[in-house]
Write a structure and sequence with these properties.
Elements (H helix, E strand, L loop, with lengths): L1 H57 L3 H50 L4 H5 L1
Helix pairs in contact: 1-2
Pfam family, one: FAM92
Protein name: CBY1 interacting BAR domain containing 2
Length: 121
């Protein structure tokens, strides 16, 4: 009888873990998608500005042309840097989430060392 109650408790705990993971992963994915869209719009505006600067530079005097092209190149570098920052931030968030999941798994293992097969699934 105790084995059945123990299994029922384990099943409920695993179901609660699955429900929680589904909820949190859904929210995480939604927020990451919103962040990506916003970052992409900002990147698009920056890219258009770089393109416009290069077009304007083509019709200017040589000194101004060189300066405008340099500004455009610097702005493109800033855009690339921002993109890299956003990607690093996103990777850190995912890594942090995965570490928390591993910590939860380790706690489950410590609570029920005899159920390693169930936990590993």
């Amino acid at each position: 009888m105790n084995v059945v109650l123990s299994r029922d408790g384990q099943v409920r705990a695993m179901e609660a873990t699955v429900v929680s993971a589904e909820k949190h992963f859904g929210q995480l994915c939604s927020l990451l998608a919103a962040h990506t869209r916003k970052t992409a719009r900002l990147r698009d505006v920056g890219d258009r500005l770089v393109k416009q600067l290069i077009e304007v530079a083509g019709s200017e005097a040589p000194d101004l042309r060189v300066t405008l092209r340099e500004v455009a190149e610097d702005l493109a570098k800033v855009q690339d840097y921002r993109q890299a920052q956003a990607e690093i931030k996103r990777f850190k968030q995912v890594q942090s989430h995965e570490l928390k999941q591993l910590e939860r798994l380790e706690k489950l293992r410590q609570k029920s060392p005899s159920d390693r097969q169930v936990i590993s699934q």
